[in-house]
């Protein structure tokens, strides 16, 4: 047996027609970011990785970004069918009197869950949030307890909700890290309902209002989520953008104006999608090479990667990435599909080599006893590996 080594650079990878998804991605070690926001976190859904953070565990006030949790709970009720979009809740005096952003619900009217959700998400209606809270839990205090129960289940360790709206309260608190956890969960758990965050306009009671998320109007691929502002919190935003089959979400907070919030959120997204790269390999499990088979019913077997590989790299690292495939040849039969037969080494400048498993793409049975003897004689006579 001999050790076989196949070296592949990125150019050859294209020639071999292996799928490489080149997208922009990553922060942290690659880019030196500064931001006027007090709290920032940037998350890449494709690799499930935090790309950049600033004061991500610092306590902050979520303001209306708390309504994302209210939405999550309603979505969960819709998913388990304890609620239907056509169900209605009564508008109480408390909900009708709520200040701040409103959906202009009428006192003592019955409003559908769908309209309440659109009022909550598009118009950031405090009245809609309270109606939903009271309809689900009986009163807003009980709903806040439900919000905290969900927060604990989702792993939001530093969050405490006091109401359904994000209305100022001394005990209300969260972190940008916790809010990105919530963002990830609402996108993953409710992909169809999440589309409501992309609604730009909602008209209720003959009053037309536009979505307050500026990214929906200024960035291709933006489809959520929520703005927030109080005097205590400053201006904040949870945003999510999907481009080229890749999603990135951000949470920023503590900015001084709407204009600064819009500019900074766009700037950060543009940096992510312009200056960084997602290296994605082995997605379609195509053959990397062929190995000879010893005493098998087939003379060769195709070798593939055990699993897809995804890594955030800089454009320079991408261009300098090299791949080496290594196995002992020939491989003795029998071989089962998925057997680890070698290693894949991925190297890039300045980083430790990455090692992945190389596996057989299919089963190869061994020859019968008589055929093995014949194959051995042919090998001794002709020096060739032959099959039946």
What would you note in describing this structure?
This protein has about 400 residues and is an alpha+beta fold. The protein is about 30% helix and about 30% strand. It is built from 11 helices and 18 strands. It has helices at about 10-15, 65-80, 95, 115-120, 125-135, 140-155, 175-190, 215-220, 260-275, 315-320, 370-380; strands spanning about 1-10, 40-45, 50-55, 90, 110, 200-205, 205-210, 220-230, 235-245, 245-255, 275-280, 290-295, 300-305, 310-315, 320-330, 330, 340-345, 355-360. The strands form 5 sheets. A 7-stranded mixed sheet has the order 1-15-17-18-13-12-16. The protein has a 5-stranded antiparallel sheet with strand order 3-2-10-9-8, sandwiched between helices. A hairpin with a 6-residue loop joins strand 17 (about 340-345) and strand 18 (about 355-360). Helix 4 crosses helix 5.
User: How many strand elements?
Assistant: 18
Structure classification: alpha+beta
Uncertain residue ranges: 11-29
Q: Over the alpha carbons, how many angstroms does the gyration radius reach?
A: 28 Å
Strand order, largest beta sheet: 1-15-17-18-13-12-16
Mind describing the biggest β-sheet? 7 strands, mixed
Gap from first CA to last CA: 21 Å
* Average residue pLDDT: 89
User: So how many helices?
Assistant: 11
Estimate the helix proportion, in percent. Answer: 25-40%
Q: Tell the overall outline.
A: elongated
Beta-strand percentage range: 25-35%
Give the SSE string. Answer: EHEEHEHEHHHHEEHEEEHEEEEHEEEEH
């Amino acid at each position: 047996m001999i050790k076989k080594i196949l070296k592949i650079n990125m150019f050859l990878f294209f020639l071999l027609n292996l799928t490489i998804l080149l997208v922009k991605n990553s922060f942290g070690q690659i880019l030196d970011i500064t931001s006027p926001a007090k709290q920032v976190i940037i998350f890449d859904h494709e690799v499930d990785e935090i790309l950049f953070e600033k004061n991500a565990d610092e306590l902050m006030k979520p303001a209306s970004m708390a309504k994302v949790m209210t939405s999550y709970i309603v979505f969960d009720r819709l998913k388990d069918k304890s609620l239907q979009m056509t169900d209605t809740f009564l508008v109480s005096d408390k909900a009708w009197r709520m200040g701040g952003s409103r959906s202009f619900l009428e006192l003592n009217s019955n409003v559908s869950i769908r309209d309440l959700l659109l009022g909550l998400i598009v118009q950031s209606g405090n009245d809609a949030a309270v109606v939903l809270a009271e309809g689900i839990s009986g009163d807003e205090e009980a709903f806040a307890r439900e919000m905290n129960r969900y927060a604990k289940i989702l792993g939001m360790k530093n969050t405490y909700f006091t109401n359904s709206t994000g209305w100022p309260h001394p005990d209300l608190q969260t972190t940008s890290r916790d809010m990105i956890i919530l963002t990830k969960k609402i996108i993953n758990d409710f992909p169809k309902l999440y589309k409501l965050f992309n609604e730009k306009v909602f008209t209720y009671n003959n009053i037309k209002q536009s979505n307050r998320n500026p990214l929906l109007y200024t960035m291709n691929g933006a489809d959520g989520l929520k703005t927030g502002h109080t005097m205590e919190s400053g201006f904040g935003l949870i945003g999510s953008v999907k481009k080229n089959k890749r999603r990135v979400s951000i949470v920023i907070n503590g900015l001084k104006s709407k204009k600064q919030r819009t500019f900074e959120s766009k700037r950060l997204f543009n940096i992510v999608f312009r200056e960084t790269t997602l290296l994605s390999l082995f997605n379609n499990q195509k053959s990397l090479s062929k190995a000879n088979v010893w005493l098998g019913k087939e003379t060769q077997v195709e070798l593939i990667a055990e699993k897809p590989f995804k890594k955030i790299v800089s454009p320079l690292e991408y261009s300098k990435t090299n791949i080496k495939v290594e196995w002992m040849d020939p491989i003795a039969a029998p071989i089962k599909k998925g057997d680890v037969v070698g290693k894949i080494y991925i190297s890039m400048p300045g980083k430790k080599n990455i090692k992945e498993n190389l596996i057989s793409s299919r089963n190869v049975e061994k020859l019968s006893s008589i055929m093995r003897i014949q194959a051995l004689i042919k090998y001794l006579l002709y020096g060739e590996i032959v099959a039946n």
